[in-house]
Amino acid sequence: MPREGILIKKPIERITGEQVRQIHDSSLGILTEPGLFCFNRRAAEVFRNHGAEVSAVSGSDASSWTIKITEKLVTDALASAPSTITLGARNADNALVMKGNEARVYYITGSETNTWLDVDFPTYVSQTDSSKEIQVPEFKPRRGTVADLCASAHVCEHLDTVDGYIRTVNIQDREINETNKDVNKFFACLNNTTKHVQSGLTNLVQLDNVVKMAEIIAGGAEKLRENPLISFITCLVKSPLQFVDDTTETFIEVCQRGLPVIVSSSPQAGTSAPIKEAGIMAQINAEVLAGITLGQLVNPGTPVLYGSVPVRARMDTLGDSYGSIETTQYNIDCVQMARFYNIPNYSTSGVCDTKIPGQQSTVERLFSDILVTLSGPQFLHCAFGLLDCNSVFCLLQAVLDDAHFKMIKSFLREPRIDEAELSVIRKQITDVVATSQKMFINYIRPVMRSGEISPPYVFEGDGEDDNVFALANERMQELLAKPVEHIDEATTERVFNEIPGLLPGLNVYKGGN
Amino acid sequence: MSAADLLASIKENVIQGRKTTEDIGIDESLTGTPGVVEMVEEALEADIPAEDVITNSLTAGMEVVGEKFSTKEYFIPDMLASADAVGAAMEILKPHLEEANVATKGKIVVATVKGDIHDIGKNIVSILLKGAGYEVIDLGIDVSKEKIVEVVREEKPDYLGLSALLTTTMTEMPVVIKALEENGLRDSVKILIGGAAVSDDYAKEIGADAFCADGFQAIKVLEEMEKANGK
Asked: What is the C-alpha separation between B203 and A498, in angstroms, rounded?
C-alpha cells in the first residue's frame, strides 16, 4: 500500500478555467514566438528531427540555436506523458502514487542547501538580577557534510508528515569531489531513509553509477523500473526560455533510462520573468511545456512531473522572495495548470526569507504551506527545514515543520456529518439540556481518545514560558537516537564493491554513519 | 468478590472515570460492567465501612488520576469524569459517614452572580470539589444577592464561591459581600471568588477571603482553610 498523503477533495483555485486556457494559449504562442534558445546540441537535433523549426543563432560558434515548438508537438507530448506516476521506496509502504487529476498531496523535503545551521542553547544571566537565567537558542551556520545529510535523512525518516526525501544539504567534505559527489549523496540518503529519494545530479558521468546503485538496492534493473526508489530533478530550462547545455544533457540521459524526472523551472518575477502574474505564468508554463515535450520526444512515456518553483523578486535586493504573497499565488496557479494537463505537479511551499527559525519563519512558511496544500499539488516540495530562501538547512526547523504539517493534516480530515451522526448528536443534546449543568463534557472522552479532535501544539510551553525551540530540540535528539532501517549488510557490501567513489565512512557495517 | 477485590475494582473505575454501568472508560471493554455508583452500593451492602471505601478506593483512585493528569496522560475531561464518579459515590456514602461519626469535608455554596449567565468554569469547579469530597450546593447562574443570603442562612455552609466572567458583572460580588455583612452572616462563611474577570487583587479589594484561578486552585485553597480550621 502506498502512503496515503492528503486527499484534497475540493482544491482551492485562484484562476478561472478561462484564465487557465488563456495562459495555455499564451504559452503556446511563446513557444513559437520568440521560441527558446537552446545551448544543447542533442536537444536541438531532437526537436529538428520531430519537425520543430530549429535555427542556428547567427554569430554564434554553432553551439546555440533558436527552437520554435509547434502546438502539435506539445499536444502530442502531453498525450504521451503518463498521468499517473509512482515514486517507489525501499519500504514499499512508503511508495507515492501521484495522479494528475487527483489532488492527493505528498509532503517532500528539499532543496539542496550549502549551509547547515546548528543550534545551541547557552544560558544568559540577568545583569540586574543574577538569580534570573534564561536559555536562548543560538544558531551557528557551517558547511554541510555527508554526516549532516545522513542525520537529516535519518530524522526525516522518523518525521510522520515527511512522505519523501529530497537531499537537504550539499555535501562539502574534503573527500568529496565532482566525480564522487552523486554516488555519496544518493547512498547517504538511501541508507538512512526507507522513503522515496530524489536529487539533482552534479555530474552526468555519475548517472550510471547512481542508477546501478539503485538497481542493486532495489533488487535488479526490472525491480527498479517497478519500484523506482530514486528520481531526479533537472532545471533544464533557465529563465527566460533557455535550454541549458549540461542540465538538458542530464535530462535527456535520465529520460532515456525511463526513471521519473521533474521538469523544473524557477523564474523570478521581476528579473528573469515579467513582474506581472499573467507574464510569469505564461512564461513558466511555456518553459515547463518545452521540457515535457523534449522528454516525451526523447522517450515517449517517460514519467515527468510538471515542476514549478516560481518566485517573486525582492524589491530591496532583487534576490528571491519566497516569503512573498505573490510567490504563493504563482505556485497555486501552476498547480492548476498541471491539473489542466493531467500531469502530476511538483510545487513549492514553506521556503522562507528569514535566516533563522523564529516568528518570521513560522509566519512565512505556514502561510504558503497551508494555501499551497489546499490547492492540491501531488508532490509538494515543502521546504522542511529550509531557511534564507534555499540556502540554509536547519534540522530543528524541520522538526518544527513536521508539527505544522500535522496541524494542516488534522485540519484537512474529512468532515463527519451524516444522518447517523446527527441522529446520535440530537439524542445527546436532548439528554444534556435535561441536566442541571447542561454540559457536554461527558461526551468528550471517547472523541478525544479516537483522535477525532486535534491535540494541543506539540511544543507548547508551560505557563507564560515559550519553550518551543527547546522542546523541538529535545524531539530532534530523540529522533536522532532512534534507529533507522539501513540497507542490509550483503547489499551494502555489494554496493561498496561495485560502485566506485563511496566514502568508507558511509558503511555502517564497518563503523561508519 | 472479596472486599479487597471490590475496593480495588472501585478504585480502578474511579481511574477509568466510570460513574455508572453505561459509562465508557479509557478501557472500552469495561462498558456494561458496574461503575463506581453500583459498586459502592454493593460495598455498603457487604458491610464494608464507608471510610474504607473513601480511603482505599475513592481517594486512592483520585491520586492516580492526579498523577496521570500531571504527566499529561489525562486531560481535564478525564479528571472531571473521575471527579464526577467520586462525587456521586460521596452522595451515597454521606449518610453512612454521619452515622459512623466520621468527619467530613466542608460544605460550599457556589453561584454565578446576578447578571452573569456564564457557568462553565463554575460547573467544573463544582465537579472537582465534589470529587475532592466537599458537599457542594450549586445555585446556578444569575443568582441574586437575596437568594445567596437566604441559602447561606439556611444551609450554614463553610464556604461561598462566587463566579463572574464579565467586568460588568464582577461588581456584583462586593454587593453580595455587603448583603452578607448587613445580615450578620459575613463572618460565618469564607468567601472565594473566581472567573476570568477577577484577580487576587480584586479579591483583596472587595474583602473576599481568596481568589481561585481554577478548580485545582480552589481545592488547594479549601484544603489550606480546612487545615487552618483544624479539620
From this structure: 79
Of A436, A441, A446, the CB nearest to B80: A441
Q: For B30, which DSSP code?
A: G
DSSP A479-505: HHHS---PPPHHHHHHHHHHSTT--GG
Amino acid at residue number B16: Q
Cβ–Cβ of A442/B78 closer than 8 Å?
no
Q: Write the CA distances from A141 to A58, A323, A328, A400, integer angstroms.
A: 47, 21, 27, 18
Region of residue B133 (left: phi > 0; alpha: psi -120 to 50; beta: else):
left
Counting Cα atoms < 13 Å in the Cβ hemisphere of B181 gives 9
A450 lies within 8 A of chain B by CB: no
β-partners of residue B190 are B159
Among A103-107, A122-126, B71-75, B202-206, the range scoring the smallest mean pLDDT is B71-75
Band (A512; pLDDT cuts 50, 70, 90):
confident
* Among the listed residues A193, A154, A101, A213, the one whose alpha carbon sits nearest the alpha carbon of residue A491: A213
Contact status of A136 with chain B (Cβ, < 8 Å): no
Q: How far is A448 from chain B (nearest CA, A)?
A: 9
Rounded CA-CA distance B191/B214 in Å is 15
The grid coordinates of residue B173 equal 460580588
Instruction: Encode pLDDT of B124-179 as tens digits.
Output: 999 999 989 999 999 999 999 999 999 999 999 999 999 998 899 999 999 999 99
pTM of the model as a whole: 0.87
CB under 8 Å to A216, separation ≥6 — which residues? A491, A494, A495, A498, A499
Q: Pick the closest to residue A152 from A167, A163, A138, A137 (CA basis).
A: A167
What is the secondary structure of B108-129 as a DSSP string? EEEEEBTT----HHHHHHHHHH
